Automatic annotation (TrEMBL):
Organism for this UniProt entry: Geomonas terrae
Gene3D superfamilies for this protein: Designed four-helix bundle protein (1.20.1480.30)
Organism lineage string: Bacteria, Pseudomonadati, Thermodesulfobacteriota, Desulfuromonadia, Geobacterales
Protein name: Uncharacterized protein
Source organism, top-level taxon: Bacteria
Length: 190
């Protein structure tokens, strides 16, 4: 076997090793892409949970809006009894008989106020439940953000592994280039 054939044989052997290393690097890159795909799946699930949490928060805000509307109606109902109290007070200055009637009207007005205050208490209770639901929604969002953070960290690890695989491929290509140099030099000499 002449010198050129020996150099060519050695170059082909080195090229075979480089191709094997490149194949291993591609396998590692495939695994990294699989891990990244799983991370994207987890992130997609986290976004779905966050979307559900935002929907629950929207429902809570709607319930709070309804509670505020009921409270506004209750305050309006209080204004009417207070207006009804003013007229009996004026009549009370004219006679004791009118005063007794006025006291009766006042008693009815106070009963209406008591009902209005009861309605306000129910509205405040509904608001408290809505705030509790919002707190649960915020907790779910926090968990979703934490899951997204973990997914991003896994993606970072996958990208780092891919970077290392590309570095190994670069080294393999460099070794292949070096292994072809003697063959090229012999060819130029020949």
């Amino acid at each position: 076997m002449d010198e050129f054939s020996i150099a060519l044989h050695e170059s082909l052997g080195a090229m075979n090793e480089s191709l094997r290393a490149m194949h291993e690097s591609l396998g590692a890159m495939h695994e990294s892409l699989g891990a990244m795909n799983e991370s994207l799946g987890v992130m997609n699930e986290s976004l779905g949970v966050m979307n559900e949490s935002l929907g629950a928060m929207n429902e809570s805000l709607r319930a709070m809006h309804d509670s505020l509307g009921a409270m506004d109606e209750s305050l309006g109902a209080i204004d009417e009894p207070l207006g009804a109290i003013d007229e009996p007070l004026g009549a009370m200055n004219e006679s004791l008989g009118v005063m007794n009637e006025s006291l009766g009207v006042m008693n009815e007005s106070l009963a209406a106020m008591d009902e209005s205050l009861g309605a306000m208490d129910e509205s405040l209770g509904a608001m408290d439940e809505s705030l509790g639901a919002m707190d649960e929604s915020l907790g779910a969002i926090h968990e979703s953000l934490r899951a997204m953070h973990e997914s991003l960290r896994a993606m970072h690890e996958s990208l780092r592994a891919m970077h290392e695989s590309l570095g190994a491929m670069h080294e393999s290509l460099g070794a292949m280039h070096e292994s072809l140099r003697p063959c090229r030099e012999l060819y130029l000499i020949a």
